[in-house]
Amino acid sequence: MKLWARVFLGYFLIVGLSGWFLLRVFVSEVKPGVRDAVEDVMVDSAQLLAELAVDDLLAQRLPDGRFAQSVEAYRQRPIKARIWELEKQTLDFRIYVTDAAGVVRYDSGQKAVGEDYSGWRDVARTLRGEYGSRSTRDDPDDTASSVMHVAAPIRDGDRIVGVLTVAKPTRTLEPLIARGEHAVLRQGLWLLGATLLIGGAFTAWLTLSMGRLVRYARLLAAGSPAEPPSRGKDEIGELSRALAQLRNEVDGRAYVEHYVQHLTHEMKSPLAAIRGAAELLAEPDLPALERTRFLHNVQTQSERLQTLIDKLLRLAQLEHQRVLEAPAAINATELLEDLEQAMHAQAARRGITLEFSADPALSIVGDRFLLGLALSNLVQNALDFSPPGGRVTCTARRDGERARFCIQDQGPGLAEFAGERIFERFFSLPRPDGSPKSTGLGLVLVREIAMLHGGDIRLENVPSGGALATLRILLNAPGKRAGS
């Protein structure tokens, strides 16, 4: 089950069960709450009416006395009252009065005059000086026929001379109870829906945050550049920073392991050649010509080792450098003139023509030394793969917000298998003239320098023959800010 489903299901169960329980409690309390409120009013009414009935009861004129006339007038009174959007059109109190023996002397409903009510709970308890009330069904088989009875003592001084009971059918309360229950259910369901909506939004936020974190972790695992999904101080932000830190530590270890493995591999050949030459040079009867040849091998392999180590150190420095330290304005024409002077002698020895041209107005903000290093590596590659009598051209032009350097040779071009591997560390192609392969780090250095200048490097074959290297960099490369 997906994480979002688990979170939402758990939230739904907690909120749903809690809401259902609370609704059950509220709904179950509506009916007794209404009944308690009505009973409280009936107590007040019974006490008031008992005080009004005392004189007629003592004078034995209840059936036609002032009290009976007032009650009858009450029963005939027209009424139209709106209570909570419910309209009340009838008066529902039934009032009866018993004497001290519990015999009914007056009944507003004309039902029980002369009957003995001393056994009913409301009358019996009131005659004993207690609070008397009861709820009795008119029809034992009909739950809706229940009637509430509340009694009050009729006193002559301290002596109880009778009981007055106020009765009210509970069916008259049902509209109020039903309305209260519906209101509680309606509001409760609205609250439950709003709570679930909030839970859904929270689940969506958590799921999206976790999804971004998972994608971030996958990009880190793949070695791709990625920005942390959250930089806040919450748990997601802390986890993002922890993953980034872990990636940096793992990359650092992998970086060292990778370099050690490749460096060991690349150093085996020159070290073996130096060792073999040293063993032969140790022989006393070695001819002078052979001795000279082996000494030359030792010198050549030593220089190769030195070049390899120097380039590795430079590459390691560039790969850990995020921005340029001190970018400065560079004139492209002057940059190519310096490059031509540095490479002219080598090209002349091999009979290769060098042609340099640049837009005089082209100016770049970057690191002069690093750009010179990148261009010299590209020109060196072009010389290595150019045949004697060939031509190498190097041009610099503006391309929108970038400067574009193009170095083209007339060599055999790139082999098909080398297209995807040409920028791998220590990958090098054999030279057409049979000279030793390079360290395989030159193009890697060029790519790192291009990235530091906000650009890229592309190497491709041209239809007319040869290879074309295109170095593009921003006219204003990002640099380190002062004070940072």
Your description of this structure?
The protein has 484 residues and is of the alpha+beta class. The chain is built from nine helices and 14 strands. The strands form four sheets. A five-stranded antiparallel β-sheet has the order 4-3-7-6-5. It has a five-stranded mixed β-sheet with strand order 9-11-12-14-13, with helices on one face. A two-stranded antiparallel sheet has the order 1-2. Helix 5 (235-281) packs antiparallel against helix 6 (288-319) and helix 7 runs parallel beside helix 8. The longest helix has 56 residues, at 3-58.
Summarize this, please?
This protein has 484 residues and is an alpha+beta fold. Helix content is 51%, strand content 18%. The protein starts with a helix and ends in a 10-residue tail after the last strand.
List keywords for this structure.
484 residues; alpha+beta; five-stranded antiparallel β-sheet; 9 helices
